[in-house]
Amino acid sequence: MASAKNENSDVDVAAVVLAYLVGSISFPWLVGRASGVDLHEVGSRKLGGSNLAKTVGLPQGIVGGVLDGAKSFAVILVARAAGLPPEAQLLAGLAAVVGQMWPVFHRFDGGRANATGWGFALAADPVAALIMGAPLYVSLALAALVRPRPTRLLPIASLLSFCVFPSVIWEQDGTTPTVSAGLALLALVVARRVTAGIRDDLATGAPLSRILANRVLFDRSELQQRGVVPI
Description:
The protein is mainly α. The protein has 13 helices and no strands.
């Protein structure tokens, strides 16, 4: 019995490690390189679909973003098909998100994992994932209708979506492993926004409160705020 438990534990650990490696594959970066562009060097310098869309083109950005979202989605489905317990499935999905944020293939400097996080949510609880998109639906509609186009709505809507996901599940089912995983996902999103390239911001001498507020709410660095780096 103990041997079987150890074997299952080894399988779970292997799945999490493999999921992290899959998450470390940056599809926007690959699509950008195929177009002769290194996302580390252009635009906002983020390895995400939005930076790819702005620097290379919207079709490429959509492809890169969808593939990034598919990573965590596929990881959870494969773990589920392999018969791993729900907790291991969720851990594997979170590992893919971590890989997107801190990829071993890109010196641990990756994207913000919005798309990867949404892919995680869609695989973990499709209904809650549909509901969590409400802030995004509103922000996209306003971005299409309002002129001049607002630049702060989508980042804060993305953050709100990750708040909504565990809240919806908790409201219906109470505290579950998926709720805990959703809270961990939110914490990862905030941590990545706060820490990515923060040394450059701190070197500007700007007030720490302003740096943190812009990063957490709007995913905007002080250098972006000052126009040194494009938004």
